[in-house]
Design goal:
This protein is α/β, with parallel strands linked by helices. 32% of the residues lie in helices and 24% in strands.
Length: 501
């Protein structure tokens, strides 16, 4: 066992063993442990219950580290955090609100990339949280419309059934619900954090006397119409930095909230913020919903131990924190990384196995050497002929590369021959064995490699491809004594079970 694994196991046991002892001894469990499996949604999924249960388990012992990324590049900053610190944050924050004037097709594609990343993140043992910067319904998806000034009288129209404004709001909710439904169907629980900082006046939903009507409308639509029972509901005002930003009037009530959070910037982790939110929560988890400066482990462990998690906001990771600070904090004994959280989650509650999702995880790089931050999506199978065009997602027509990863499940216990047809380079690994290696410029060339496989068993598979100039195409086929030659179908391909982003 190496030192890092030893440290992980030691920290995990220090968190979980006291709870296990209490439960095994027959003593009364802490109030938080008793209520942990009861989200506000009575139909909450097993995965959502387990996530909330683990938040309760961690509370008071450590803080879960978190990092946010943007809609347009859902893994960029999170990967940067890993490069700087050698650790992944346990919690990955995603965005579903478009703010750059995207077309409907672009929004759909970017949300798909977010969903694919979130599924893989959860399968790797992490936590998924989602934010929704919604433009004023019925207006263009640009930042100025998220911050559009709306009077109380006009706001009322959006929460009044039958009005055009209400219908626009419902259309927005139904659109974003489609992404959350995909996550639900993949067994992914989500810390859902909508309409945040409602006690400020910088968003269209801010400082409205009937804010709870908007919150309740979304909850009803998502839970009772779309059956999004994978959501843990996070209410998150801005820190009350002045008397203008008190938040009591905007609280929907404990029966409508699972987690209470605060957005805290400028390293202003005032004790009063913590104390007042803890009092309002009455035993429910509290968290730092957004921060610019990473919170000091020594400060939190000394007097603010009940924060369950924090989330550093996007590019502020490096704008507001030095590399030395990032490395030191992420490797402190107080922050929980993804590896540590994953182990705690498995011990603290009954492990929940998310269903397998068909397809391969594709990482598309705008260069020939599979480097940098990729654009990502799920591809059902490999049967592409882009000719002189682009795969999409702003990938160039020429000089790009792709890596697909996942698992494959053969139907027969036989030697399988895999074939590729590609223009240009191609490499294929099955069960860690390189069976096709043709990393050269070539035009519509077939390559073959064989390996013995067992029926029904899942094997890791990885395909790497590059396109230089001209036409581009790639196809993956297989055959065996009992299997006629065919394109490897989607039903035998699966998303990676423990993808390391």
């Amino acid at each position: 066992m190496n030192y890092r694994m030893f440290r992980i196991v030691r920290r995990v046991l220090s968190i979980v063993l006291p709870l296990c002892f209490v439960l095994a001894s027959g003593s009364a469990a802490p109030a938080s442990a008793v209520s942990a499996a009861n989200p506000i949604d009575p139909g909450a999924t097993a995965e959502a219950k387990q996530l909330l249960n683990t938040l309760y388990t961690v509370t008071g012992k450590n803080i879960i580290s978190g990092q946010h990324d943007y809609l347009e590049s859902p893994d960029e900053i999170n990967n940067k955090l890993n490069r700087i610190s050698t650790q992944y944050a346990a919690l990955h924050g995603y965005e579903l609100g478009p703010i750059m004037g995207q077309t409907a097709a672009q929004i759909a594609e970017q949300r798909k990339n977010v969903v694919n990343s979130a599924i893989n993140w959860y399968r790797a043992g992490g936590i998924v949280t989602m934010t929704f910067h919604e433009a004023l319904p019925g207006t263009a998806p640009v930042w100025s419309n998220v911050q559009k000034s709306v009077s109380q009288a006009d706001f009322d129209k959006y929460v009044t059934p039958g009005t055009p404004q209400y219908n626009s709001l419902i259309a927005d909710l139904d659109s974003v619900a489609a992404s959350l439904e995909t996550l639900r169907d993949a067994g992914v629980p989500v810390l859902w954090r909508p309409y945040h900082e409602m006690n400020g006046d910088w968003f269209w939903w801010g400082k409205k006397s009937n804010f709870s009507a908007l919150w309740n409308l979304m909850y009803d639509r998502f839970v009772n119409v779309h059956h999004l029972d994978n959501l843990i509901w996070v209410w998150c005002p801005n820190a009350p930095t002045s008397s203008n930003y008190t938040y009591g009037d905007y609280f929907p009530g404990l029966s409508k909230v699972d987690v209470l959070a605060l957005d805290i910037y400028n390293n202003d982790f005032r004790q009063s913020y913590y104390d007042n939110l803890l009092k309002l929560a009455q035993g429910k988890p509290i968290a730092i919903g957004e921060n610019g400066e990473m919170p000091s482990p020594s400060l939190l462990s000394a007097s603010q131990q009940n924060w369950a998690y924090f989330m550093t906001w996007g590019s502020m990771l490096t704008q507001n924190n030095s590399n030395d600070t990032i490395y030191s904090y992420m490797n402190s004994s107080y922050y929980l990384t993804r590896a540590e959280f994953s182990l705690i989650s498995k011990i603290a509650g009954s492990p929940v196995t998310a269903p397998l999702v068909n397809g391969l995880y594709g990482e598309y790089f705008p260069n020939l050497n599979l480097s940098g931050v990729p654009l990502t999506r799920t591809d059902a199978k490999l049967d592409f002929n882009w000719r002189s065009g682009s795969p999409g997602m702003s990938v160039p027509n020429d000089n790009f590369s792709v890596r697909w990863t996942g698992q494959i499940q053969p139907r027969y216990s036989e030697t399988y021959t895999f074939s590729t047809l590609s223009d240009d380079g191609i490499r294929v690994w099955v069960n860690g064995t390189l069976i096709i290696d043709s990393w050269i410029k070539q035009s519509w060339t077939e390559r073959r490699g064989s390996i013995a496989l067992t029926a029904g068993q899942l094997y890791d598979i990885k395909i790497e491809y590059y396109e230089g100039q001209g036409d581009s195409m790639v196809k993956l086929m297989w055959q065996s004594a009992s299997q006629t030659k065919e394109t490897v179908p989607a039903e035998v391909l699966f998303q990676p079970g423990a993808l390391q982003n």
